[in-house]
Amino acid sequence: MVAQDIAEQASNDGLADSRLVAGEGPGRWKRIQAQLAHLPIFKELPAEQLEPIAKGTQEVHALRGTTLFHSGDPCLGFHMLVYGRVKLVFVSSSGLERVVRLVGPGEGFGEALMFMGRNYIVTAQTLVDSLLLHISRDALMEQLEKGSDVARLMLAGLSERLYRLMGELEAYTLQNGVQRLVSYLLQEWPGEEGTPFRIDVGKSVIASRLNLTPEHLSRTLRDLIDRDLIRVQRRNFTILDSAALRQYGALPDTRA
């Protein structure tokens, strides 16, 4: 998988602190170019088109809990997550958070606002130690003006994001809490029954993302456990019977 390849390639990078990696030179941007080449939005670009974008990209090593930007900050580019996990949240005037998106490896965020010239409307924070790439708006726009395939790839990526958001909106509108949780677990599930997988975010974050109260989430998880559909040990989840889990959530089997 792309995300696994990216994470394995980046696993040797230390995360001593939250910083932009300093220094110029061919070694640095060649490494960045290799990382960009793994990401879905850039993987089809030839090296000569990717090279100038890589030279306008910075690596961001961020420890868990690092705020990458706040709502209202200027958007001067967009981020791609190499490994780790990032939450995008709305923060109310009273300090309450609502998670609107959980970003995983290989995914980007901020593209639409960058193109619109708008400030960020959400706050982004890392949930685990993470490596991100920040692609400069100026470097990207220069390539777009040259008529490269970047525009086509970014349009495809944004269209896919919009399609996914429409699906999530449909889920929030038509699905109940049990169905939203079951859908989320099946989305995170690697596909092997009886094999544990880790969801590296806390239950409070999951509850916020699914528009559930923490109490509702806990009750629903307990019900699924009592029915021998899943097993939960801290942040490690195991799906014991995917067909029964889908049936319990009244969800169709969308596997190919």
From TrEMBL:
UniProt entry tagged with the keyword Transcription regulation: yes
Keyword Membrane attributed: no
Parts forming coiled coils: none
GO molecular function: DNA binding; DNA-binding transcription factor activity
UniProt-listed PROSITE patterns: CNMP_BINDING_3 (PS50042), HTH_CRP_2 (PS51063)
CDD domains: CAP_ED (cd00038)
Domain Cyclic nucleotide-binding: from-to ranges: 41-161
Name under which the protein is recorded: Crp/Fnr family transcriptional regulator
Taxonomic lineage: Bacteria, Pseudomonadati, Pseudomonadota, Betaproteobacteria, Burkholderiales
